[in-house]
Amino acid sequence: MRPTFLPYNQPEVGEDEWRAVGEAIMSRWITRGRLTQQLEEALADYLGVPEVVGLSSCTAGLHLALMAAGVGPGDEVISTPMTFAASINVIDQVGAKPVLVDVDEDTGNLNLDLVEQAITRRTKAVLPVHYGGHSVDLVRLNRIRDRWGLAIIEDAAHALGSRHDGHLVGSSGNLTAFSFYATKNLTTGEGGALVVPDAAMAERIRALSLHGLSRNAWNRYSEGGDWRYDVMAPGYKYNMTDIEAAMGLTQWAKFEAMQQKRAQLASHYQQRLRLLPVVVPAVRPGFDHAWHLFPIHLRLDVMSKTRDQVIEELRRRNIGTAVHFIPIPHFTYYQRRYGFKPNDFPHAETFYASEISLPLYPSMSFEDVDDVVDALAESVGD
């Protein structure tokens, strides 16, 4: 057994981030400013898109994207039960109705056959989640978008660096929200970004992220700024800060190296897990996985233990894990408000009942992976 606990996740941060954040603080400009703009530009250049807006979270991005797409009371938004609550909360918060459909058994992503069947005259948007770092089939989803005149708002919290048919998630012309939370492949501590398809919409979203003001603080208070401003709409306080962006720019400089390490660790997991009663994450042909998560599925049909018992056995052996996700119909609010029941989505339920997310982050060693697999081999046994 490992002598020390291996946490489920640790951010890849060190002296470079410490130095960058310190320099941002000592510059005396610590809210949204030039560093946030630099991070936005770096992401836009990487994705090949006209605009990226830095925000306080991926959730803020999804909320503002729904508003920018004109989604509101009386509208329906098709989404997935296999996600974190934030993806569905924002639909509820703009006054729309979440319409959930089941997921594919292998990837945990939205089943697009069911998406097409769920479209009604009230459907205004589809909000897919790129589960674990494996992209939804965006080619097909965009055909659905164009056929029905829908907005596609991508929850790409797991998917920075993910590709489909060689195209990066975020580059297909949709409003796409990324997360830079502490556990993500690139972190700013908290934070996120929204890909926006045109400049006019981006300016509106930037205004909404800053109380609806026509000028942000940099435009008002920096040298050459103008103190006058207008309030264009009742907005929110969703902006990214330069302290966060300083960390993000440092992370960005090593993003590709971190992604390569994640892929190497995932490959080592796949090799080592072949003889255990588990199913490793699916990677469909034509897709490049971002490896935010490494979600395995226990072969419960050939085991005497439950998923929860295996998680507890791993914890006793100093291995941290997580579960992604408790499906939305399990939560009291959505049961009461929309009548969702767990058995409404059998694939999501099966996916959830057998899923364990194993540790995966760049500072792990291959020996750490071996420790996880050895502990798992002992935990699944009688």
From TrEMBL:
Pfam families: DegT_DnrJ_EryC1. The keyword Transferase applies. It comes from the Bacteria. Keywords: Aminotransferase, Pyridoxal phosphate, Transferase. The keyword Heme does not apply. The active site is at residue 184. This is DegT/DnrJ/EryC1/StrS family aminotransferase. The lineage of its organism: Bacteria, Bacillati, Bacillota, Clostridia, Eubacteriales.
